[in-house]
Backbone:
């Protein structure tokens, strides 16, 4: 098939699979990978080859930038200790465990190939975790730890991976050199990311100062930011991954003062669609990678039992890591006071959410063609990704029910309280302006606006007091939605009768869309 046909076919498949995922209540990545794997067994389909450079450059930067943009910095900073324990300690332990098991179950691969495989499958995937968590009610702290781990552990794994490949070529390996390399590339990546974010912000401010900026130009700069951060990081021989993540976090934190509301609204819609499409294509293509091995026949599938054992060890090591490390950390009085021992169910859930994804696949595909047992490493990597992403993704909901974990009600209450504080700040500002104004007509408008704010505050306070706040909120939302639909219908009828031009209709409809989107 030609590239345009593949593009259209991929888009059609993405739409169909998204509908199926929504219908059966499963995360998109799980459905896309499972469907791609199923298609790999359909006769006469051409094999799909994913260039690793395409993943690392074209796909990974925007996905990581988006994940960084959505990161809760306060939660990330407050949970940095458990994040680093997973992103560094667990990655190293997983690499060692996988290396040891591979030498035992597949001795023909040898130490070098086993070591490289361990480095490839050791990091979890931030994109897979984020997309999976959106489907379930998971406490914010757990989501912050798992997603934060996925943002950092790529740097750890890729440093080990680089040293492993170098060791395979030169038959040498230096543990102290690997540690020094990790520190250097991590710090360098953080610095590069911060510099790129500063440059993007400076350009945006300068363009705005001279009246040359608008929401489209701002968003073009934001689209270019992850690629600039990644390429600069790679050119400086530091972590391009961390550079992208830092740029995303920094620009997200600064977006409220750098960009206007129109820029942020457009950015939210553009990035949501773009990230969804990238996820759809990459996870579908990831499943289709099995087609290469299907054509290879029994030689690859004879390794399936060993690949499943390696997948089981990857899962088991994570489950065995979280409990003792959490307990050992609390032996320090300062840690114990600041962060008491979490519930066992929370630790079990963190242990069960170690999904692998596109970084592992890209690292496997990036191996030189003449690397020993390259195809075997790629096949085992695919199996590990499939087992952890599809297997753990499908079982996540039953695990949540078994552990009796849901979204903490305190999260909802805190969000309502924040909204109340914001509304009170708005009322205070209205009162300040009212005291300076003496015009009676303007005073009436100010009184009306204050009344709207007070009604919204009263509604939120009622939600906090009510035991059935979610049900009441749903009923209140329904009434507002019906009122907005009546407004929309009235304007549509005036447009259809030719009483207002389409331009006016679109302007009014935009305002109504904003009002209705606020309710959801």
Residues:
């Amino acid at each position: 098939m030609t590239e345009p046909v593949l593009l259209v076919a991929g888009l059609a498949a993405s739409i169909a699979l998204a509908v199926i995922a929504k219908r059966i209540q499963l995360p998109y990545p799980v459905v896309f990978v499972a469907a791609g794997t199923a298609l790999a067994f359909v006769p006469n389909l051409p094999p799909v080859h994913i260039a690793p450079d395409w993943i690392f450059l074209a796909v990974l930067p925007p996905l990581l930038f988006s994940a960084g943009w959505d990161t809760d910095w306060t939660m990330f900073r407050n949970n940095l200790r458990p994040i680093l324990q997973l992103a560094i300690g667990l990655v190293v332990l997983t690499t060692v465990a996988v290396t040891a098991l591979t030498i035992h179950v597949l001795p023909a691969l040898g130490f070098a190939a086993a070591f490289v495989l361990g480095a490839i499958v050791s990091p979890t995937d931030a994109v897979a975790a984020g997309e999976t968590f959106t489907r379930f009610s998971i406490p914010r702290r757990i989501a912050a730890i798992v997603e934060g781990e996925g943002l950092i552990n790529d740097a750890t794994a890729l440093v080990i991976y680089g040293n492993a490949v170098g060791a395979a070529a030169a038959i040498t390996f230096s543990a102290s050199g690997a540690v020094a390399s990790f520190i250097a590339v991590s710090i360098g990546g953080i610095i590069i990311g911060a510099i790129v974010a500063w440059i993007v912000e400076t350009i945006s401010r300068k363009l705005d100062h001279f009246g040359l900026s608008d929401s489209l130009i701002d968003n073009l700069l934001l689209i270019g930011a992850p690629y600039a951060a990644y390429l600069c990081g790679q050119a400086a021989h530091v972590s391009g991954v961390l550079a992208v993540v830092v740029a995303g976090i920094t620009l997200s934190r600064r977006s409220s003062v750098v960009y206007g509301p129109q820029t942020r609204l457009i950015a939210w819609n553009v990035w949501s669609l773009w990230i969804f499409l990238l996820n759809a294509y990459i996870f579908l293509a990831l499943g289709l990678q099995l087609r290469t091995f299907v054509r290879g026949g029994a030689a690859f599938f004879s390794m399936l039992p060993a690949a499943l054992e390696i997948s089981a060890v990857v899962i088991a090591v994570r489950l065995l890591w979280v409990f003792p490390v959490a307990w050992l950390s609390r032996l320090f009085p300062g840690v114990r006071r600041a962060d008491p021992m979490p519930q066992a169910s929370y630790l079990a859930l963190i242990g069960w959410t170690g999904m692998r994804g596109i970084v592992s696949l890209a690292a496997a595909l990036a191996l030189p063609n003449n690397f020993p047992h390259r195809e075997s490493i790629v096949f085992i990597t695919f199996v590990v990704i499939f087992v952890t992403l599809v297997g753990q993704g499908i079982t996540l909901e039953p695990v949540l029910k078994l552990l009796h974990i849901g979204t903490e009600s305190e999260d909802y209450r805190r969000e309502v309280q924040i909204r109340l504080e914001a509304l009170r700040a708005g009322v205070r500002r209205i009162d300040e302006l009212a005291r300076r104004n003496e015009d009676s007509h303007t005073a009436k408008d100010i009184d009306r606006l204050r009344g709207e704010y007070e009604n919204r505050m009263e509604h939120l306070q009622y939600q906090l007091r009510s035991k059935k706040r979610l049900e009441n909120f749903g009923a209140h939302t329904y009434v507002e939605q019906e009122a907005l639909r009546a407004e929309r219908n009235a304007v549509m009828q005036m447009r259809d009768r030719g009483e207002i031009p389409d331009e006016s209709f679109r302007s009014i409809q935009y305002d109504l869309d904003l009002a209705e989107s606020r309710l959801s």
The CA atoms of residues 10 and 281 lie 7 Å apart. Confidence is low (pLDDT under 50) at residues 467-471. Residues 3-407 form a domain with the Na+/H+ antiporter like fold fold (CATH 1.20.1530.20).
